[in-house]
Amino acid sequence: MADIVIDWQDLDRYFVKSDLIPAIAVDVHTKQVLMLAYMNRESLQKTLETGYTWYWSRSRQELWNKGATSGHLQKVISIFADCDDDTLLVHVEQTGNACHTGSYSCFFKEIYNNS
Fold this sequence. Notes:
Blueprint: E1 21-27, E2 33-39, H1 41-50, E3 54-57, E4 62-65, E5 74-81, E6 88-94
Parallel strand pairs: 1-6
Antiparallel strand pairs: 1-2, 3-4, 5-6
């Protein structure tokens, strides 16, 4: 596994404003946005420990290992925090589809295009 750049105690800085932070999963190869989910401190720590994404399910109120039941795993390549340390960008190697609908990305419903 790759080196972790931050100290474990430093994880708290991402949860100053909220117990949950948005985590945007992006395909590391295509740069396509795959999904948005939320992480709490425990899911971020498990993600860093295992190298695979863990999220907090707001509807089920439990930790969720992406792909554990479907096989559509997200292997973490890198994680970046935004300038305010309250949103994460997670570059992943996606196995299968990211969306529960069967779509590769959760962002397939175009609502505006001015091109």
